[in-house]
């Protein structure tokens, strides 16, 4: 097999007059949502991956690389099938992407166990994978789901907020998010609704419940299109100005173009903000804005980091990603300029990192964005790593 | 008490949207004996057409008003091109053909508007609350849906009960062959009824759009509920569709507003939240089954 491959490569090199040293190009699969109401998130990730490719000059460790995008259609079964296609048919070296925890959980096994391929989550961070299901083939350039709401909860606890009403979509990530905020927020929970995900976009019944419960604040987790709907309906119900809204992943560069002024002043937590003052981030944000006229989101920044993580391993190994153990050992060093600033990997291969509190504001040009107002958590670890058998 | 009132209004608002969708469905099913699975596609097309027209006119009201004749025309064209061939076929073939129409419209939308989905903003003058009772604010846009839905329901009741066309519609619903034999232009009547159904579906779609979002397949889920409504209400009966839509709207809200808290007393929060919508869905079908046992042709259906 090896000889045949080599033979084919030689023939191809001869036929196309390529240099005699033919290197196998690195193949990266990228699974995200590129159709339907949540396609804006996938587009932001794709733009950032393309920007990373541009910044790298199309090469990792001197070897050209290509990226194969697959659309999960926001459905776990489709995401799994597309991931299998990338492993079995395209024979990619690494798969990255995954917005949704339920899609990632459905796909993980076929990629890492059956496919023996490295998977980097650019967003989803279900608690199971941080804990007992942790996997040597799995790396995260994002967070565990619990961490961001934990940062928000801690901030609200310190600010002296007495009671909260919690709402999230009823799926893997939504449950983690509410568990997370309850780990650090010790005040009264006036009510808690997990709404049907992703079908339910009408929150009238829940908003009426919130009005009756009279909490000090509302905490939500509604990514993408759902966040747009929730905020609109929260404002329409006349709750803005009466009960403050606190959020994770629900007001960001994806949703703000539609939420506009309705979002002004709303606080959220995040591990990456567009104004973090490191050089890599300044370049990324400036180039992204120049190219697309909008701000990038954390989805994009994390995807950019995923590509840079692969590139760091490829640099160290001179472009040869064939030995998986070596690739993993290099990735584990996290030896690259992350857009959030440098971080280390924990034993479960999730980052140990800071979390910031951000506020929705207007920039000097009048465009809606978020800015950092406080550091909520320094060098935060997720609450599950001790359950992970990897050391 | 305020809380109960708010939740009931939410149920009424949902019920009226469902009624608009079910009204067209019950007319085509009852009068033309046509099973139209693609009725949900007209709901979707209404929303997409409105999105485009609102963009052009820069006004929600104007865009929405222009979208109504546009969906009427679309309905007439669909009737003339596809449906007319299906009247003489049996129900299974109608189901197959109209299912094909769903796929066609979903693909058409993908080609014209792209896969990403659109959102329609609530018009500025409705982006506030109204006090329905002193100290009980309600979102103005939802209130507007209730008003529009109620006005349309009254107009439709008047049309069916007091006009010549309404008389023909009612006659058609009870005995199609006879009105044909009496020299009524059935083809024209059918076109008109189908177009009318398309307008109502389109109106429901464009009014729901700011509350949910405009996306491919948005009508497919809600269509099943619309079928349940016309079965409960009695096929061909506008009054039945109205009553059944109200009942279904209230059941849905009860399922979302009260059941989770009730279930949480003995289930975990996550299990309760998963179970409540499922139970309220089941409850809708239990009501349907109950009605069918009691009155096999639905609440207001024609006795055979």
TrEMBL record, chain B:
User: Which compartment or compartments is the protein found in?
Assistant: Cell membrane
Q: Where are the transmembrane segments?
A: 12-30, 37-54, 60-83, 95-113, 140-161, 182-210, 222-248, 269-294
Q: How does it sit in the membrane?
A: Multi-pass membrane protein
Q: Which PANTHER family match?
A: ABC TRANSPORTER ATP-BINDING PROTEIN, BRANCHED-CHAIN AMINO ACID TRANSPORT SYSTEM PERMEASE PROTEIN LIVH
* Species of the source: Reyranella soli
Q: Which coarse location class applies to the principal site listed for this UniProt protein?
A: membrane
Q: Which domain of life is it from?
A: Bacteria
List, alphabetically, the InterPro entries matched.
Answer: ABC_transp_permease, BCAA_transport_permease
Q: Which UniProt keywords apply?
A: Amino-acid transport, Cell membrane, Membrane, Transmembrane, Transmembrane helix, Transport
Which family, according to UniProt? Belongs to the binding-protein-dependent transport system permease family. LivHM subfamily.
Question: Taxonomically, what lineage is the organism?
Answer: Bacteria, Pseudomonadati, Pseudomonadota, Alphaproteobacteria, Hyphomicrobiales
Q: Cellular component per GO?
A: plasma membrane
Q: Among the record's GO biological process terms, what is one?
A: amino acid transport
Q: Which GO terms describe its molecular function?
A: transmembrane transporter activity
User: What is the protein name for this chain?
Assistant: Branched-chain amino acid ABC transporter permease
């Amino acid at each position: 097999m090896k000889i045949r491959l080599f033979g084919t490569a030689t023939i191809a090199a001869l036929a196309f007059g390529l240099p005699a040293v033919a290197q196998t190009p690195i193949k990266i699969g990228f699974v995200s949502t590129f159709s339907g109401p949540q396609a804006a998130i996938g587009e932001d990730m794709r733009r950032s991956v393309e920007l990373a490719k541009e910044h790298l000059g199309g090469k990792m460790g001197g070897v050209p690389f290509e990226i194969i995008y697959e659309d999960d259609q926001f459905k776990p079964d489709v995401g799994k099938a597309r991931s299998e296609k990338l492993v079995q048919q395209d024979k990619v070296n690494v798969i990255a992407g995954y917005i949704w925890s339920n899609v990632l959980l459905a796909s993980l096994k076929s990629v890492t166990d059956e496919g023996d391929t490295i998977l980097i989550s650019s967003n989803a961070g279900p608690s199971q994978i941080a804990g007992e299901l942790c996997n040597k083939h799995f790396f995260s350039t994002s967070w565990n789901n619990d961490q961001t709401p934990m940062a928000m909860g801690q901030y609200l606890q310190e600010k002296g907020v007495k009671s909260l009403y919690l709402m999230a979509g009823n799926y893997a990530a939504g449950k983690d998010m509410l568990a997370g905020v309850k780990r650090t927020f010790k005040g009264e929970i006036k009510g808690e609704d997990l709404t049907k995900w992703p079908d339910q976009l009408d929150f009238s019944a829940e908003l009426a419940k919130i009005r009756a419960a009279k909490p000090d604040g509302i905490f939500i987790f509604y990514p993408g299109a759902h966040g747009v709907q929730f905020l609109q309906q929260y404002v329409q119900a006349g709750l803005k100005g009466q009960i403050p809204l606190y959020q994770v992943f629900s007001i960001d560069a994806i949703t703000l173009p539609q939420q506009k002024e309705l979002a002004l002043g709303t606080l959220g937590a995040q591990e990456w903000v567009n104004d973090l003052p490191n050089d890599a981030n300044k370049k990324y944000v400036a180039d992204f804005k120049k190219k697309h006229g909008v701000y990038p989101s954390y989805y994009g920044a994390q995807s950019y980091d995923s590509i840079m993580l692969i590139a760091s391993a490829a640099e160290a190994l001179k472009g040869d990603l064939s030995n998986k153990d070596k690739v993993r050992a290099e990735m584990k060093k996290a030896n690259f300029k992350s857009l959030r600033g440098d971080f280390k990997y924990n034993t479960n291969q999730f980052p140990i990192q800071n979390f910031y509190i951000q506020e929705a504001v207007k920039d000097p040009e009048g465009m809606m964005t978020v800015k950092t107002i406080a550091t909520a958590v320094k060098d935060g670890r997720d609450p599950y790593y001790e359950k992970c058998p990897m050391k | 008490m305020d809380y109960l009132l708010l939740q009931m209004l939410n149920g009424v608002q949902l019920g009226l949207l469902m009624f608009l969708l079910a009204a067209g469905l019950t007319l085509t099913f009852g009068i033309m004996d046509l099973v139209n699975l693609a009725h949900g596609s007209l709901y979707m097309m209404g929303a997409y057409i409105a999105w485009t027209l609102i963009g052009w006119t820069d006004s929600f009201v104007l865009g929405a008003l222009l979208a109504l004749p546009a969906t009427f025309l679309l309905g007439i064209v669909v009737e003339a091109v596809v449906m007319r061939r299906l009247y003489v076929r049996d129900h299974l073939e109608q189901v197959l053909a109209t299912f094909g129409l769903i796929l066609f419209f979903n693909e058409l939308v993908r080609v014209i508007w792209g896969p990403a989905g659109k959102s329609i903003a609530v018009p500025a003058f409705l982006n506030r609350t109204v006090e329905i009772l002193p100290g009980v604010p309600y979102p103005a846009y939802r209130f507007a849906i209730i008003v529009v839905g109620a006005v349309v329901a009254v107009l439709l009741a008047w049309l069916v009960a007091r006009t010549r066309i309404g008389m023909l519609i009612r006659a058609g619903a009870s005995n199609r062959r006879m009105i044909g034999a009496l020299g009524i232009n059935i083809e024209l009547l059918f076109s008109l009824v189908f177009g009318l159904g398309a307008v109502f579906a389109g109106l429901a779609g464009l009014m729901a759009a700011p509350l949910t979002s405009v996306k491919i397949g948005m009508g497919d889920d809600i269509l099943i509920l619309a079928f349940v409504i016309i079965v409960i209400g009695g096929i061909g009966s506008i009054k039945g569709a109205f009553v059944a839509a109200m009942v279904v709207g209230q059941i849905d809200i009860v399922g979302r507003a009260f059941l989770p808290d009730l279930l949480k007393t003995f289930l975990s929060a996550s299990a309760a939240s998963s179970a409540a919508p499922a139970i309220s869905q089941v409850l809708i079908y239990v009501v349907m089954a109950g009605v069918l046992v009691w009155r096999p042709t639905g609440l207001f259906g024609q006795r055979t």
